[in-house]
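OP here, attaching both records as promised.
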Amino acid sequence: MTRTSFNRGWRVRPKVSPFAQLQAGAGNATSVTLPHDAVAALPRNADAPSGGRTGYFPGGTFEYLKDFEVPDRWRGKRVTLEFQGVYRDAMVYVNGTFAAQRPSGYSPFDVPLDPFLRYGESNTIRVDARTHDDSRWYSGAGIYRDVTLRVTDLAHLGEVRIATPDIDADRAVVEVATRVVNESVETRTLRVRTEIRCPDGEVITRDSAPITLRAGGSGVVRQRLYVPNPALWSVDSPALHTARTVLENSYELLDEETTPFGIRRLQLDPITGLRINGESVKLRGACIHHDNGPLGAATIARAEERRVELLKQAGFNALRSSHNPLSPAMLDACDRLGMLVMDETFDMWAEGKSSFDYSLSFPEWWERDVESLVRKDFNHPSVIFYSIGNEIFETGDALGSEWGRALAEKIRTLDPTRFVTNGINPFVSVLSEVKEMRARSAEVQPDGEGGVNAMMNAGDFMARVSASPMVSEKTEASFSVLDVAGLNYGDGRYESDREQFPHRIIVGTETFPPRIAHNWRLVLDNAHVLGDFTWTGWDYLGEAGVGRLQYADVSPVFEAPYPWISARVGDLDITGLRRPISYYREIVFGLRTQPYLAVQRPEVYGREGFGMWAWSDSIASWSWDVPIGTPIAVEVYTVADEVELLLNGRSLGRATPGESKPFLAEFDLTYEPGELVAVGYRNGVEQGRTSLRSATGPTRLVAVADRTELHADDSDLSFITIELRDEQGNPAGAHDQLVHVTVEGAAVLQALGSARPDSEERFDAAQCTTFDGRALAIVRPRGAGEITVTVTAEGLEPVVLELESLEPDDEPVTAALLALR
């Protein structure tokens, strides 16, 4: 068997009908390397049909084209394309003939090519994809995940599934279920050989078994192997074993698969909560969308890995995919790095949320998409939950909840080794009743000054509804089909459900970021509450401004106007920089003892801000372009019981954390350049200190690459952080500047941008304006060789970085490869 990347050599252009092509031609196609987002390079405008929901990006229909040679030696082989995701409603044509369709934009699917191929000559594949008012957030469009070409013998391996049902300190039972497919015209007697390697690469056990299959038949070979003294997979020690499965006949190797897997034991009950390998685990969770900020929706493996790395460094140990299945690349990263996963199926069932969304396909396609999800996830130890939906309208309806039962039971037939949940928002589940309640409520007004009150009180209103007996009754059937009750913004039910439903286990599948101290106390105090997944861990494109602060002196609107592009919600911004709330959360989690200093922007001093997903408009800086004496508010996050603030050595007094919010001490002072120091005290003894210094003297341009040696393939990237600093290294972001980036040699500038949430600058341009003195350049290899990256800004000394793109070591040629030559 050969399995090779099929990401290079594509062209993309807007899709037009054959009739239009006759009149005006098809238009020029742009050469691209997958994964690719066709929407990210389109101009945004205030009149985009989906508005701020998709970041004011337009929709569109696109066609991807690729010519490829099909050697004559492939005759009699099975040739398959594996698509990991095409957004959306993909139509695949081979040599002009329809070959496959997939409505879901997030499901992997295979396309058998051999019925359409012309051997010994060039062939063409075309993939059409489209997006139009079909998402509540930025979806991107096109072939935005990897594509792989697989060539096998007619007798070949199908799916390999690995489970570890019986584990103790002395040994682990590893069950390997291998499907073997015989698509030849004769009966074949074959043998499956499996060997398991421990994390250091040593073979620790092996087994073989024969199978005889009739022409056109298939069967499963089950092997039960025993691993002595197993290294267990966990968040803190993500040990990965590898199974190599080989299919052979009496004289040659026909096929092989290498499957990483983890040995770990999951247990669940309302008394001890979630246990992994016998140890209780509380989920410090982050919801994440699928886009990669400046890269758009393109799921390049290194970008996925980097997100997992940075989220784990920020204190998270679990991710919830929102609201669609994670990419295989991100699952691989979670396995390697030790991050737990709640993988989610759908954002809607049969009741849609956008005019042309997946609900139009759900009744016909849901089973195939669930099968695809489980097939993708089964061997990933990081996946511990399947979520069957997010804020589904049908969850409050007795008949509609039948969908949930069908989904849950389908998953259990495919994979009984993991837990099933659903992100149920009790408020959404009774939305029709809520509309009547709002109409009668005196405190929630639809317009004018009442609109301000409505938005400021919406969280409390939602909490009261969620905790009501009406919700208990209407959602009981939907919760009853689950192993774990997922609650979106339902923390008001945590304690009452313990009494009302004593066997109900809860996880906060989506929660308001500012409430983390309150929610985490509920998690710690209630064994039946497994953890908290904040909205969100990483900022994302679309849902423009949902996480921004709004102010009582301005008429509020839920959706921010153009040119807003991002939600402005998340512990990390779209470039990967940790925002102040991330450090606050780390302190709440008990992972940080050092105080953290954040300063509110002077222009918002004294204004009353609100927003259910919003934190204060603050950054870690003491460099401000304001007159001395300007009033300014300072926040200190700390586990100390008292905080002293010093400015240029003078004490400005002490404050007690927790007066407005736990772990938070607040100070009002006037701005004066220099050094600001926060000192935490516990029982009168200094517990830790931190400081911010004003930038002085000339500003320097600083550029640092997260890696200087890259793989010369389509999966790697170098992320280059660009910052304005003074000679001492202090941030100098008071005056943002336009920076230019050029890339020469064996790479291209894949994207460039800042975290500015309302920028009109394009991510595919070679220049951008810093935001708070920071920007991010992303460089992608296009072959082996030297790479030179030059960063310039007017009046500043340029920075030149030297990178290198290296070819991977040649893989040994196996008998399977030789057999195909």
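Record two, same layout:
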Amino acid sequence: MWKWSIGIWTRARLGANKRGLSLTWPSAKHLSTGRSSLPKVRNIGIIAHIDAGKTTTTERMLYYAGVSKHIGDVDTGDTMTDFLEQERSRGITIQSAAISFPWRDSFTVNLIDTPGHIDFTFEVIRALKVIDSCVVILDAVAGVEAQTEKVWKQSQSKPKICFINKMDRMGASFNHTINDLVRKFMQGTGTKPILINFPYYKKQPTGNDFVFQGVIDVINGKRLTWSPDDPDKIVIDELDGTSLEQCNRCKESMIETLTEYDEDLVEHFLEDAEGDYSKVSAQSLNASIRKLTLQNKVVPILCGASFKNIGVQPLLDAVVNYLPSPIEAELPQLNNKITPMKYDPKVGCLINNNKNLCIAFAFKVITDSIRGKQVFVRIYSGTLNSGNTVYNSTTGEKFKLGKLLLPHAGTSQPVDILTAGQIGLLTGSTIENNVSTGDTLITHSLKKDGLKSFNKEKELALKINPIVIPPPVFGVSIEPRTLSNKKSMENALNTLITEDPSLSITQNDETGQTVLNGMGELHLEIAKDRLVNDLKADVEFGQLMVSYKETINSETNIETYENDNGYRFSLSVMPNSSPTPNCVTYPLGINDNYLIMEKDAKHDKEWKLQVSLESIINSIMASCIVGLQRGGKLANFPLYGCSIKIKRDWLVPLDLESPQEILKITRNLIIKALNDLPADKYDCLEPIMDLDLIIPQSDVGTVLQDLTGARKAQILSVEDELATISSISSSDIFPGNNDRIYIPPDIISNLHTIKDKQKAQDTNFNMKKIVKAKVPLREITAYTNKLRSLSQGRGEFNIEYSDMEKVTNDRLQSILHDF
């Protein structure tokens, strides 16, 4: 019997059991601990536009890996990774879910399934911070959509593979989707697509209908077809006819592309294969694809239909074959860029040549109804042991670890240790006030209390750069129903923003109003639901409103403040500018605000206080956040794009035991500096959105008139939408290079091209236009109904945050009138 050389798909044919488990299936020990040697670990994120099939694909991965006994379905609400009640009821992913599973030969895949909706972009941002590579899911009908463009750019440095999903749908086009992918992401970058497989359509016994039933594996030259009735049954056949010809051309094209970059493959091709494409081994091709994928020279492309269980096993093989292990990924970005770093096969990221150093990064906080606060961490170096003493280099605090867990979507599994490359959970009362999103944790890999062996200026000063939080664009007022509910409301809000830092709270001291700010209407709707139903806050909400900001256009200084208790501070508040020499900059979370501390060798090297320097800096940062959140003089909108600079001559008492007094003093100084600034030194800012519209050609004039007139939009471009029904030749993708890149034509598209073109002529069918514009968020709220009216219900649009821009004087009066 022919044996599949790169996968474990023979398990169904060998009949190990109903699930068809592989004869080389990992041991029970491997399944229970989630540990593999570092070269056999893959940390991946599933990213895509909403409804491209991320969760559906993830569910099939878990099924074929043996983690789940049945295939979860988004429509029926029984998926493993979408485990929240709101996710299952709405059929969308709201928060990223981490889960580990084994794949062939004892590989461990740590997967994060991310949301596709633009409102939950922070979930994608923090997932991208800790993963090593990405699987990009594309809809074969829609091609590259707006959110796909965004997440691709966000993950630009990460190696990727692409999975063209929904090949079974009417209008699906493998050819067009690759063309769209290359045109938007690869042209001019030196990166090229590599077809690992392409779609196979089986002609039906009667008529001219073709049904997507499998893929043609280019590397091994086989046809793989899946049974519509049995998800475990795969038939592997030899190729003939058109399929064989197309596969040979794809393989030649693949070799030509790879040999542009890979000298080793050139040598193999000329010497071992004697210049014959058919003799180039699968092993050599896989090795070359892997090497160039890690260098971002090529992007492997596969196809399938996850809902029909087609193509998922080849995708899993591609994950372990081509994507990096933790010791092949890009190094973490540290605050000290001169610290020596390299990868070690045993300890992971070897920092400062210290093999006993364990560094972990906290990227997410959740609240479990039973275990309480839990913190997701990615281990970059060494071993994290339960019970160890940990130093939080972000806050300067020490604490002992409680129980450690391995996440399994909505559940988790206790473990004694977490090793380099793993994603795990911290639990216990000790983390309650000691760890937040973006913190760096340092401990000794072996000793329970081995922090004393670390150098304060070297190991204990290391920090992984924090996660960048985009500014919120919408807000909603919130107040307790009764005065007695105020404390519970504040606790619930604190829990909410601890879990999701892209939410923020602002308070108007004059009106006493509390405002919950978020990334979009849906984001706030979910947050409101969680406050009321999960956190049991008895509150009332106001109307949705745009989150405006203020900024200053002039610097203001506070002359040296000094009191008899031994405190001395000098500070200035200024607009953001270029980096200041001999200073350390600390981001203040949202709103693009920063604390700038002038360097002082005396503070850094002759520290004699009981309170750590990190604790003092954290107190100053807290006072900066409070002071800037009080708002400006125009309408008390929170301040945006400001820097607070602390001069190097600051002093605190030697007997200082708590930094609370520092917080009070610096907060009052910041408020005084802002109050001393005249009102004409403040500007109002409003969120500007990138708007993508897809509208019929006949409605372009009407829509553009509405955008430029009533909505104050700036039109950037108007382009023709590429027709998905046409067959795209390789020369369209790489002009002048069509002998190297070959993409098989779409069978379904070719069958319908003539008929569809005739239909377009007969019915005066309109091709669609893509309009790209920038528009103030205020003018685009509730735009759905208006666009539907202007385009007879045929228009679609997508918006995402672009920037904050200064409001013109005429618009300022209108905005202030609303408040």
